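Good morning N.,

You mentioned wanting to compare the apo and holo forms, so I went ahead and generated the holo version with nicotinamide-adenine-dinucleotide. This is what I fed in:
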Amino acid sequence: MSSTIAVLAGDGIGPEIIAEAIKVIDCLRSDFGFEVELKPAAVGGAGYDQAGDPLPEATLEICKACDAILFGAIGGLEYDGLERELRPEKGLLRLRSSLSLFANLRPALLYPQLADASSLKNELVAGLDIMIVRELTGGIYFGQPRGIRVTESGEREGFNTLVYAEHEIERIARSAFDIAMLRNQKLCSVDKANVLEVSELWRELVTRIGKDYPEVELSHMYVDNAAMQLVRAPKQFDVIVTTNMFGDILSDTAAMLTGSIGMLPSASLDINGKGMYEPIHGSAPDIAGRGLANPLATILSLAMMLRYSLQRPDLAELIDTAVGNVLNQGFRTADIADGGHSVSTSEMGDAVVAALSTLKQLS
Ligand code: NAD
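and this is what came out, ligand included:
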């Protein structure tokens, strides 16, 4: 069955890294019989330039109609002076909320070839492979009321609301258990149930949903301890599920354990498993247009798409293996070259395609 993918390249290095992911898609088409239709659309600064809106209506319609979305990156200095609603970042936030992409999956996987790039000692991170499942559309970032008000004493106070409804906790818990089932059947739920009532409810519901997944070993951890454990003994984790703000912080911590931002993919899924797939980095205006960007995070985001939205784990596995092979062969873009010889963005994409073709010949 043919799939449709919306392709939103965006700004800065976005078009460069997406071009390399498209090379990989073309290879899957020609060598592995992958049937797919690509639907390019403008977003971010490119959307503003084209239609005066960082998320043009036509782009949103294409995204709604497709099976999955491949997203590059948005943002650029030239747009920073625009009013807030018209800035590129707003287009991305609107896209996530319009499509109800509530489950954010952030793997932190350390390739053995890049172990020296980690901020931790080799023995602590060798073989690291964690998946953080962060709730993305609720919690304190969205809770009402919020604002800055003047109290009776004339002093200003800022306030936000941390609120989670049962259905929001239940659906993120189910997503996390489903992902744990696809991995090592081990899930750690991170909360602050010793202090927060919201967390008390969170823990109760995650435990209840866990009864539907008897194969999954569920544990609970307070967020302060989880932060400590992530830098003390990160390999104890397999899948972590947590709230929006805790996940924001913990996933960045976990990302740094693996070295380069140019290697890390992500997925944001809705209730039906439809998703948007993007590298975790931004549009990197400092290196845009110079062939310096690492396309691997985007190519690995494509692998996540094949695994989580397009039900092609076989092709996802091939891409993961091909990326491992090009690293074994010594290919490095500048961000992971540690000052040594480096290849350009397109040379790295070509290397992944060549590695895929080799895998085809071996099969
Ligand atoms: P950034 O992630 O774009 O860049 C941070 C640093 O990492 C830079 O030095 C950059 O050169 C480097 N880098 C990033 N991606 C790389 C890659 N693939 N290969 C090699 N090096 C890479 O973050 P920033 O500089 O804080 O933000 C730049 C712009 O991106 C801003 O407009 C910001 O709003 C936007 N942004 C967008 C997203 C997104 O599209 N999801 C995320 C974060 C930031």
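The chain has a mean pLDDT of 95.

Happy to go through it together on a call whenever suits you.

Best,
F.
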